[in-house]
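FW: tagging you since you asked about this chain on Friday. Here's the raw sequence from the shared folder, copied in full. Didn't touch anything.
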Amino acid sequence: MVSRGEVFASTKTWVVYAREWLQWLRWLVFSLIIIALARPQIVWSEVQSTQEGVDMMLVVDVSPSMLSKDVFPDRLSAVKKMANELIERRKQDRIGLTIFAGGAFNQCPLTSDHRILSALISNIQVGRLPEGTAIGTGLATAINHLKDSTSLSKVIVLISDGDQNMGEIGPLEASLIARALGIKIYIIGIGKNGLAEVPAFRRRDGTYGFGSINIKIDTVGLSKVATAAGGKFYWAQSSGELQAISQDIDQLETSELKVTSVQKVTDLFFWFLNAALSLLLLEIVLRWGPLRVITV
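HL: got it, structure written out here
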């Protein structure tokens, strides 16, 4: 004779089977959470657009004479302000920075990250290079960086206040090399002719003492250098003229650049996360509701 309890114990109902599947429900929840953390996406389309841009090297004179105060507040400060406004307007261009005095080096390669370039321009200081004015060396350094550019428009904008008095390569020679490589040179001469407060000596702490000296900007020589490379010479005698010149340079020729951009991206992680939370809630309700184990 079989007892009624033994019969019930040997019979499996849907509740028993459901309890066995609860642990797999928990593993499914963990899997969905892992997928959500991977942040799956759907890229709906890619769009290839054409923009206009120039590869441009700014070549800035950092010899002590750039601290002269005939341009407010001084020549170098006015140049830094103009350069930052120029790159702000030319968002589509790749722009680099070369500085020179008695020597020259590339402060920043061609870049589309204008925020970093602007910071480097703002940090330009006099006294980090040997004293002197090696315009030809500054041009040659920028040309060497631009020569491998694939852009159809390659431009150098050089800003200086002096005559060549150092360097193994002359400005005109560098200009002819630039022309052979398809690089145009635009030169901005900054400063006034006549008496000006210019650095006369350097103190032990690195600062400069000033004195009144009669100076003359070599507009003729700088103009020949710019013209030889198919460019143009400008003469800025004030901060206002410098700003007007920078706006004129904005009219430089541009070339087409192909840019591929993502048109639309859809994140899918929230679908997996919502499914995981829903299944977890279901598992909790079942475990403590109809599938709850009651011990006597």
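FW: The beta strands are 41-53, 55-61, 94-100, 104-111, 154-160, 183-190, 194-202, 208-215, 232-236, 255-267.
HL: agreed, and The CA atoms of residues 189 and 219 lie 7 Å apart.
FW: great, closing this out.
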